[in-house]
Amino acid sequence: xxxxxxxxxxxxxxxxxxxxxxxxxxxxxxxxxxxxxxxxxxxxxxxxxxxxxxxxxxxxxxxxxxxxxxxxxxxxxxxxxxxxxxxxxxxxxxxxxxxxxxxxxxxxxxxxxxxxxxxxxxxxxxxxxxxxxxxxxxxxxxxxxxxxxxxxxxxxxxxxxxxxxxxxxxxxxxxxxxxxxxxxxxxxxxxxxxxxxxxxxxxxxxxxxxxxxxxxxxxxxxxxxxxxxxxxxxxxxxxxxxxxxxxxxxxxxxxxxxxxxxxxxxxxxxxxxxxxxxxxxxxxxxxxxxxxxxxxxxxxxxxxxxxxxxxxxxxxxxxxxxxxxxxxxxxxxxxxxxxxxxxxxxxxxxxxxxxxxxxxxxxxxxxxxxxx
Length: 372
Hints:
By secondary structure, the chain is α+β, with helices and mostly antiparallel strands. The chain has helices at residues 43-52, 74-79, 87-102, 119-136, 140-154, 159-162, 170-176, 245-251, 256-272, 279-282, 315-333, 357-365, and strands spanning 6-18, 30-33, 36-41, 68-71, 115-118, 192-194, 197-199, 204-212, 226-244, 290-296, 338-343, 353-354.
């Protein structure tokens, strides 16, 4: 039985008459593949909805959860907000912290990176701001001197703010990583890798013409008050996620129990949480029709190739297509992954035990302990 270094998650999820993820022109994101255009959901869109889902299996319900905030105003809103003191005393401290976190041009909001900071880092900065305020004792010149010294010690060293914290960038960074252009040492490598989901068949889209009528219009005022168009799409999407289990455990400070809880909840979120665009007008709520989990020690590989030739948009046929491709991969590579799957279709998947979503999540939860 191979060591479970990687957990691979494959899923097929259907959507009807939706606009899940838009491009800069307001149309559905697309991907040319296999000579035809497919509808696409970006990995960033998927990750955000899994990350912020208000759900019984939300990541925020994991024991030991630490929040994180992606913002250009974390210093003002999460560190200095409500700090008692005169403005001319706070100002040099704010400037120093902005430069330490966002770089030399950090005082200009437009020049700041939209940076992800975790609660451990924000608590550290808050304590430091309070300490500097106390030592300045209301004197602006002293505050400036203290802030300058503090900046010299911390400039280009956001890493110093996270040392000793198990999850410095919060659970979000522990799962999906963080890139800090002003301080590469503060980067956090993502152990959860998410592919762009795409339809297993050619795109199915139409332009939806709709109007708004003025309820208070007079009887002789006929016609619509507003006339607009939007795009709607339908499709059966293939999605793929890889979790580097040692990387996840490392990012969680070696806590295998917490890593197990994260995987348990992540399986539920991938299966049950939908992107929420145009929620009020399309109710884009769906659940995975098929989910396959694989645990093994070999380099992960997507099953997207199964759908290079467009597949009929039907769960049973798509599951069979994926099964056939997996059988061929097994015959060539014999990588020996352990597998669990759930499916609304009758078709089985090779060398995989069928179970419920709860059983799949429970199985995934136990994988980190096997690496202890």
